[in-house]
Q: What sequence folds into this?
């Protein structure tokens, strides 16, 4: 199969998430990195792009130049990753979708629910893929959890407990550092800080694994560092459309916690626990049974887990390989479209614009409920009510 062409906007030198995308997209030989507008400083972006191997005429100075340059080419990029700061996602994603490109957009997909609905509509009307990088759903054992729930190993799901709590913004003396401060400033970050940044990963993963969507929620949001306008900690209770009860904790002041993304699922017939810092083990407790550790890469797991596990059992796989699984899904989706065949259902798991939109609705619901002392609110986007 011919390699697909891939391009990236943002993710310049020294960025947090750029390297994980380049590793992920390059891993399986499905994509060639051929174009980019990598930095908000045009010259730095051009220079870095060429150092990464881009041709000089495809190492663009900004995303509009890249759109103009790529749309006329026979060998235009098949997929564009948008890994710029949040406030730019909407206009870049919209422009590329409207010009016939498939897009993988970083989270949060947009800054408002209305923008999210527009992206969903454009993606549906144009037929172009808009994926959203909830990259942690690419972990093999997260795929396996989803498969176990879907095949009924846990029975009816009673409870979901999701966490994404770290301690990297806990130093009150550092709260005025410009790299930290903007995140808690509504003018730059929007209506929510910690929930919009990290909480949505945990909430999305709860939906991904259970196959249920969040209907309503109640949030207790606080700024533990009092100079912050937006929350640095939130506890969210939620209810899902399949009857599951959800609890979510997210924090940026949990000193001692590093990444802190953890999911627990409790059903009538068993419970599961997975943590992103030990992603190669999944804890499974069948009702009245004994605790088992499921290892990534062991035989006899689900097709979804087998497909997304690459390195032999016992050798750790980590976050860039989880991203690689999102890219492999997208490569399969794009190749299937190109050749007019049905895609492999085990690959049809990449998060979509609809998921990005649901997250935006949850962000606004958390902000609203948090301001009103935890009143229960509808967490669904108007489009899906
Ligand atoms: P960063 O600030 O470390 O890097 C941003 C990069 O984008 C820089 O290289 C900057 O020069 C470039 N840039 C900014 N504006 C641009 C523009 N208009 N055109 C081209 N390039 C531009 O940011 P970071 O942490 O890498 O985050 C980027 C996005 O990725 C954010 O939306 C963030 O929420 C998301 N993210 C997602 C993660 C995940 O697990 N899915 C993890 C970390 C970040």
A:
């Amino acid at each position: 199969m011919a390699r697909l062409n891939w391009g990236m906007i943002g993710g310049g030198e020294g960025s947090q998430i750029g390297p994980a995308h380049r590793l992920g997209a390059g891993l399986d030989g499905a994509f060639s990195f051929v174009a980019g507008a990598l930095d908000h400083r045009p010259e730095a972006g051009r220079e870095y792009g060429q150092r990464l191997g881009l041709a000089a005429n495809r190492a663009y100075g900004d995303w509009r130049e890249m759109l103009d340059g790529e749309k006329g080419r026979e060998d235009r990029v098949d997929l564009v990753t948008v890994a710029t700061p949040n406030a730019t996602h909407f206009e870049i994603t919209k422009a590329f979708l409207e010009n016939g490109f498939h897009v993988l957009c970083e989270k949060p997909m947009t800054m408002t629910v209305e923008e999210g609905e527009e992206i969903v509509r454009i993606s549906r009307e144009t037929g172009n893929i808009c994926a959203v990088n909830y990259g942690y759903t690419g972990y093999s054992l997260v795929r396996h959890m989803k498969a176990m729930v879907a095949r009924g190993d846990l029975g009816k799901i009673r409870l979901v407990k999701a966490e994404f709590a770290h301690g990297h913004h806990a130093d009150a003396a550092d709260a005025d550092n410009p790299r930290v401060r903007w995140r808690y400033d509504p003018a730059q970050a929007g209506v929510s800080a910690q929930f919009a940044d990290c909480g949505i990963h945990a909430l999305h993963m709860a939906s991904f694994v259970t196959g249920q969507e969040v209907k309503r929620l109640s949030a207790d949001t606080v700024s533990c560092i009092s100079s912050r306008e937006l929350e640095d900690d939130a506890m969210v209770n939620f209810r899902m459309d399949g009857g599951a009860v959800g609890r979510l904790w997210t924090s940026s002041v949990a000193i001692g916690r590093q990444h802190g993304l953890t999911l627990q699922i409790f059903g009538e017939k068993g419970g599961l626990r997975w943590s992103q810092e030990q992603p190669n083990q999944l804890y499974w407790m069948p009702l009245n049974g004994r605790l088992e550790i499921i290892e990534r890469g062991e035989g006899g797991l689900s097709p979804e887990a087998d497909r997304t596990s690459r390195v032999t059992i016992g050798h750790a796989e980590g976050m860039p390989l989880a991203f690689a699984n999102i890219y492999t899904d997208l490569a399969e989706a794009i190749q299937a479209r190109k050749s007019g065949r049905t895609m492999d259902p085990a690959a049809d798991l990449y998060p979509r614009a609809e998921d990005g939109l649901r997250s935006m609705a949850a962000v606004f619901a958390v902000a609203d409920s948090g301001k009103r002392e935890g009143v229960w609110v509808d967490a669904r986007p108007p489009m899906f009510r």
